[in-house]
Amino acid sequence: MKLIYIAGPITASTSWGIEQNVRLAEEFALRILKLGAAIYCPHTQFRNYHGELPWEEWIKRDLEVLKRCDALFLLYGWESSKGANAENDFAIKSHLPVFNNDIHKLQAWLEEET
Q1: 113 falls in which pLDDT band (50, 70, 90)?
Q2: Among 8, 1, 3, 2, which Cα is nearest to 100's?
Q3: 64-94, pLDDT tens digit by residue?
Q4: Rounded distance, CA 38 to CA 46, Å?
Q5: Are residues 71 and 97 in contact, defined by beta-carbon separation less than 8 angstroms?
Q6: Residue 44: what pLDDT?
Q7: What stretches of the chain show up as alpha helix (H) in DSSP?
Q8: How far apart are the C-alpha atoms of 9 and 77, rounded to whole Å?
Q9: Domain ranges of the chain
Q10: Coil, helix or strand for 54?
Q11: 43 half-sphere exposure, CB direction, 13 A CA radius
Q12: Sheet with strand 71-74: strands edge to edge
């Protein structure tokens, strides 16, 4: 079973903005689960920890998990996220497949990998 890392903006200027970002991640997490993959979605795991660690500590942990994943799925708006940009750069340097908000390409890849 492939493990897919979901990346996109989490932080926002309001708590409602954070909630919207988390909801988008949850939507795609479920869609990816239904495709038969396992997922890692930091949005859902850390949604209530905003401000508890400096950004550098969060990204260090996120990249450690990304090392163990089989592919990266980028959510809509990822370009505006410092963290998602770092995760994308890391995935490219690590030769991990990257799916830019394209669930259909991810599905095709998962089907050919099984």
Answers
A1: confident
A2: 8
A3: 999 999 999 999 999 999 999 999 999 999 9
A4: 18
A5: yes
A6: 87
A7: 15-34, 42-46, 55-66, 82-93, 103-113
A8: 7
A9: 3-113
A10: coil
A11: 30
A12: 38-40, 3-7, 71-74, 98-100
3-113 homologous superfamily: Hypothetical protein PA1492 (3.40.50.10400)
| C-alpha closest to that of 3 among 83, 112, 106 | 106
CB neighbour class for 64 (10 Å; exposed up to 12, middle 13-18, buried from 19) = exposed
**Residue 77's closest CA among 4, 3, 11, 5?**
11
Amino acid (one-letter) located at 40: Y
What letter does residue 33 receive in the DSSP assignment?
H
> How far apart, in whole angstroms, are the C-alpha atoms of residue 2 and residue 55?
28
Is residue 5 classed as helix, strand or coil in its secondary structure? strand
Distances (CA, A) of 35 to 46, 48, 76: 24, 27, 19
Instruction: Say which residues have a Cβ less than 8 Å from residue 17's Cβ, sequence separation at least 6.
Output: none
28-39 average pLDDT score: 98
